[in-house]
Write a structure and sequence with these properties.
about 270 residues; alpha/beta; 8-stranded mixed β-sheet
């Protein structure tokens, strides 16, 4: 191939790559967050990257959140309204069941973003940044840093596994915003998402979903990528002195320990 032809070929390759876009699907379960759910929705429609859609799941809210969601979405122009699917559960599902049930109807190569109702994205260009990460076909799972309320507190970071260490033995660093290529979750055996009684896990749900998926991806040589940007506002009341000592916090810690002690279920 002559020099001019090579240059033209490379130019075409660059243009093709620039046009390659991932499709993003936000899975957003919500419960009693009527004061903040608008911020959740607005943070998505404000994204400069436009290839996204949203599944909003009302997980048995008892306040006006369901009404606020409906009114907010219906107030959007038609080209945005059509990007939203509103789901109303008739029984409490919890994060694990909501996520597993929803991904069954998502294409394998779409990138799922797990955003909780009442939390929001902090960067309008965030999806462009995440899209650039997933241009690498070996990236299976990626997550950003976050902020607890309006602070610099954050537990996310890179996962640096030692040669004989599994993801179950590594400290939890894969927090919000959590994203993954859909096919990697579909491969995980259902038993990983359930407790010893065969019920879907209802607490420490993020670890119940992500640890087995990360385990399989890591075994296959896929990348678990930390994105060092604060992309997520975690709506939490840091003035609550009992925040980390409450009964729920204790149960959450115990559930996470059981999930890790059990490890991957084949």
């Amino acid at each position: 191939m002559e020099g001019t032809e090579i240059a033209t070929h490379r130019s075409k390759e660059r243009r093709t790559k620039a046009l390659m876009k991932n499709k993003f699907v936000f899975i957003i379960p919500y419960f009693n967050c009527e004061e903040d759910i608008r911020k959740t929705i607005y943070s998505i429609i404000s994204q400069s990257y436009d290839d996204w859609r949203v599944v909003l799941i009302n997980d048995m809210s008892t306040d006006k959140t369901q009404l606020v969601v409906k009114e907010t979405v219906e107030s959007l122009p038609p080209q945005l309204q059509c990007k939203f699917l509103l789901v109303d559960n008739t029984e409490k599902h919890g994060e694990v069941r909501n996520t597993i049930k929803t991904v069954r109807n998502i294409d394998d190569n779409d990138v799922v973003c797990r955003l909780d109702g009442g939390d929001w994205l902090t960067e309008n260009d965030l999806l462009y940044i995440i899209n650039s990460v997933y241009e690498d076909p070996d990236v299976a799972i990626a997550w950003t840093a976050h902020r607890w309320s309006y602070t610099t507190q954050n537990i996310s970071g890179p996962m640096n596994l030692s040669p004989n260490q599994t993801v179950y033995q590594h400290p939890w660093v894969s927090s919000h915003l959590k994203t993954f290529r859909c096919k990697h979750l579909k491969r995980v055996p259902e038993a990983n998402f359930k407790d010893d009684d065969g019920n879907y896990i209802m607490i420490a749900c993020d670890q119940a979903v992500f640890l087995p998926m990360m385990h399989l991806a890591n075994q296959d040589g896929k990348k678990l990528q930390f994105i060092p940007i604060v992309g997520y506002h975690y709506n939490i009341d840091l003035t609550n002195k009992n925040l980390f000592t409450s009964e729920r916090s204790v149960r959450q810690k115990m559930s996470a320990e059981r999930i890790r002690a059990r490890g991957f279920v084949s």
